[in-house]
Specification:
- By secondary structure, the protein is mainly α.
- The chain contains 10 helices and no strands.
- Helix 3 packs antiparallel against helix 4, helix 3 packs parallel to helix 5 and helix 6 packs antiparallel against helix 7.
- The protein is globular, with a radius of gyration of 17 Å.
- The protein starts with a helix and ends with a helix.
- The mean pLDDT is about 95.
Length: about 180
């Protein structure tokens, strides 16, 4: 006796999630090529898995493949035009390409679509840190850490925040309480 369509779909999503989680672990360990392979496998299991497509865009960005990263972000946006994380991914790629106005617009769109998503605020804080706008960096980092206090550890070692690490406001934000 075979599986029902619902069971097959559930199994397909489970396999996609397993590969996605493996990719996330590899990405966190800066193994971007291996992470990309895991995200690709996740999408082979379930081509509609939006989180894998977004993660794929970030992996391609880290591998210095911005055109492919933009295409991946575009697929994620096409899959769900209300996915704030997809716009944040594209914004991050635009920033790397020096397309500041487009990056800022997409970060704004991402926040409007997903106002409680800490990763968007965190990445927008990174954007402002790189741009040298201390006040906006502080504002967005503060919101990110309010939504996700566990990101404090990441912020303390994030290269984007080097110019502000010794500032009292930064020290206060990342203090572990």
């Amino acid at each position: 006796m075979g599986r029902s369509n619902a069971e097959r779909e559930e199994l397909k999503r489970f396999r996609a999630e397993v590969h996605f989680e493996r990719g996330r672990a590899l990405f966190r360990n800066r193994k971007f090529a291996e992470a990309l392979a895991a995200f690709d496998e996740s999408l082979r299991q379930d081509e509609s898995f939006l989180r894998a497509e977004i993660a794929r865009a970030y992996a391609l960005k880290r591998l210095g493949r911005p055109n492919e990263a933009l295409a991946s972000a575009a697929r994620a946006i096409a899959g769900d035009a209300h996915a704030g994380l997809a716009y944040a991914a594209r914004a991050s790629i635009f920033q790397d390409l020096g397309r500041r106005a487009e990056a800022e617009a997409d970060f704004g769109r991402a926040i409007a679509l997903s106002p409680d998503e800490p990763r968007i605020y965190y990445n927008f804080a990174c954007f402002w840190a790189v741009e040298g706008d201390e006040e906006k960096c502080r504002r967005y980092l503060s919101r990110a850490l309010e939504l996700d206090p566990q990101s404090k550890a990441t912020a303390t070692v994030d290269e984007d925040f080097v110019p502000f690490r010794e500032k009292p406001w930064f020290q206060k934000l990342v203090a572990l309480k």
